[in-house]
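ingest -> validate -> predict -> emit
validate: passed (alphabet ok, no gaps, 188 aa)
predict: started
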Amino acid sequence: MATEQMVGFGGKQAWLAIRSDSPGEVIAALGLRDLGTVPWRDGIDLAHLTDDRVAVTPPVDGWILATGRYLMRPDRPVDVIGLSAALHTEVQYFATHRVTESHRWQRAADGELIRAFGYVGQTGEVTSWHGEPGPVEREAGLPGELDEESTVLVGENDVLRVAAAWSIDPSTLSGRPAPGPLNLAAAG
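emit:
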């Protein structure tokens, strides 16, 4: 029997990268119901197309990825600080939506916010900024320090580059052998 292959994601999506080896603990910490395992293509598609499903990977290179439009909902912002404190680990959040040019990333470890950046291209507004940008962020054009004179222009590819530097660029997963089954979880 052939090994199932992973399916990449990233565009017009939100995801978490969590340094963990337990998808079940991640699902519980997110307050989701575990719906069991699903084929990778089905799970990624459901998470992308619905507002209440999250696909949760097995550990991939030391990281569990959780993705879905549910993680992008403005009425339920992801609390990376609380999640990292609850799981006693590093948690990263990424979101990108190229239609509105809305791009975000956050990084917390053991309940401490390390870095946060948010940007809305339609207005050119930086919506969040905490900590100093690292080398990959500077390469994307972010200033070392944000002030009124700063010009910021960030795109979807920059979010994926930051993800690759911090943990995993999920768009590169396609075609790789799956290290295990994909779990599907639901809100409520």
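Residues 156-166 form the longest helix (11 residues).
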